[in-house]
Each structure stands twice: as structure tokens, then as C-alpha cells.
Amino acid sequence: MLYKITFSPTGGTDRIADLLGDYLSKSLKAKTSGINLLVRDPDRRQSLLRETDIAVIAMPVFGGRIPAVAASRLRMIRGNGSRAIVAAVYGNRAYDDSLRELADIAEASGFRVIAAIAAIAEHSIIHEIAQGRPDDEDRSQLARMTEEIAGKLDRNDDSRPSVPGSWPYKVFHGIPLGTYATDDCIFCTSCALECPVGAIPEERPNQPSNGSCISCMRCVAVCPVQARRPDDAVTEVIRHKISPVCVERKEAELFI
Ligand SMILES: Cc1cc2nc3c(=O)[nH]c(=O)nc-3n(C[C@H](O)[C@H](O)[C@H](O)COP(=O)(O)O)c2cc1C
Q: Which is nearest to 125 in space by CA: 178, 81, 83, 59?
């Protein structure tokens, strides 16, 4: 079985995991199954892989790190010696220590990391950055990478790649962004139900997100009437700060 284990608030990470998973499952003729780490509170200690399974573990990069809630949910899964391809998905600024952190967590959870990928998807706060990615060029690069990975799996080569990143990891305190609802809110509660950390009260979904909000933009992405928005002033500060370092197109990288 090939497992896709993801935490993807706005879908970019899932798109990368799907590309990697689809190419690999075809090449290995393996069935696929998904483990969605956005879901709150299931008993993840039940998630026990077999040694013969393969996992694609994909996470978004927040402030150069893996979102803490995603990391703690991944730690509850038992890899049981299965081989893993880890992918850190970022918005064309930088992935800093996130790929190394993800590889370290996967190994601590019992996976054997045989390949690591840094890939780019549209920036989930500043959408004009890396807009439309992954695109055709990304797709062909990722396809070539999966051929290499399939070859390594075929050879039963379980060596751990050298993954960039430093330890102690970069410190990320979160960003004081949060979201609010405009008067267009129709009280459907999608945002409250889909929030990975329960930061919007179900009984009052038109309220701003509370202190547990991780600014992941899930609520903005799932609102059917586009009534949910990130704080406008803070968004402008972020746009101003990161746009200059996001101009140059970054490409996916494979460490194998
Ligand atoms: C809170 C937050 C912090 C982010 N930090 C970074 C970052 O440090 N570097 C970067 O290149 N992109 C960053 N991004 C962009 C995301 O990594 C990127 O858009 C990713 O594809 C989002 O995954 P998703 O579409 O699965 O939610 C950040 C996004 C959010 C919401």
C-alpha cells in the first residue's frame, strides 16, 4: 500500500502529494490510501503501517518550519519501518529547516526516509506569489524525481539522504494574522467545522478566529461565499516583507 500522509489547509500540499503518489503508485503498481492530518482528534495511534508499505509524507512550510500541530499529529503515526518520501511544500520564499525537521520527525515515528523533496505551490496568504503552481514544469520535474525514487526502491536501497537544514531549527513564533468574516457570511459553519485547530466557534462562525488560530488559511479556502478573509493590514505587511525575496522562481529539489 502507498500512503499519502498530508496536512494541506489550502490544497497546495495535497497537489504535490497527489503528483508524487500517482506517479509512484503507477510505477510500483501499488494501491493508495490517504491519512489526512487536518482532521481533529481521531485516534492516530491506530495508524500503524506495515514494513512493506511506502509513505509519501507532505507538509506545508510555515515560517521555515513544519506547522507544530501537523508535526505532533505525524508523531502519533507508527511508521513501523516502512519507507518514506518526505516533501516540504513552500510558497517560493524559502523552506529553511522544514525539510530536515520533517525527515527527523518521520524517522522518530519509525519511517525509513529514503528521499526528500522541497517543492513549490502557490503562496496561501499572498496568492500572486507562485500563482498556479505546481505547473507543467513542476509536474515534469516531479515525474523525473519519482522515476529516480522508484529506481531506488527497486534496488532496495534504504540509505538516508543528506537533507539540508540546521539544528536547532529556526524559531517560528507564528504570525499574528488571524481571519475574520465579512457581512457576506451565511453561517454555514464550514469554516468552523474544517478548521484544523478549532479556532472558530461553530455557534458563531462570523467571529474572528481566536488565539489558537495558526493562520493556515483553511477557513478562507473552504468558505463557499468568500466571506472569510485574513486580517487586511497584517496581510499587507507580509506582502511588503516577502514579495521582494519571492520574485525569482525557485525549482523543486530532490535529495536522494
Ligand atoms: C502561516 C504561513 C506561513 C508560511 N510560511 C512560508 C515560508 O516560510 N516560506 C514559504 O516559502 N512559504 C510559506 N508559506 C506558504 C506555504 O508554505 C505554501 O503556500 C503552501 O503551499 C501552503 O500549503 P497548502 O496549500 O497545503 O495549505 C506560508 C503560509 C502560511 C499560511
A: 178
Strand duo 112-120 + 179-181: pairing: unpaired
Per-residue pLDDT reduced to its tens digit, 2-47? 999 999 999 999 999 999 999 999 999 999 999 999 999 777 767 7
Q: Which of 7, 56, 61 to mutate to test the pocket of ligand 1 (most atoms within 8 A of CB)?
A: 61
Residue 115 domain flag: yes
Indicate if the pLDDT at residue 156 is higher than 80: yes
Q: Is 222 exposed, middle or buried (0-12, 13-18, 19+ CB in 10 A)?
A: middle
At 74-93, the pLDDT tens digits run 999 999 999 999 999 999 99
Both 43 and 131 in one domain: the answer is yes
Residue 114's nearest CA partner among 82, 70, 142 is 82
Of all atoms in ligand 1, which is nearest to the CA of residue 13? 26
- Of all atoms in ligand 1, which is nearest to the CA of residue 61? 17
Residue 245 covered by a domain = no
Question: Global pTM?
Answer: 0.98
Lowest-confidence pick of 36-50, 129-143, 238-252:
36-50
For the Cβ of 6 lying below 6 angstroms from any atom of ligand 1, the answer is: no
Helix (DSSP H) and strand (DSSP E) numbers for the chain: 7, 8
Range of the domain at 137: 2-168
CATH number at residue 37: 3.40.50.360
Task: For residues 153 and 198, state if they share a domain.
Answer: no
Residue 252 lies in a domain: no
CA of 185 relative to ligand 1 center, distance in Å = 25
Same domain as 137, residue 80: yes
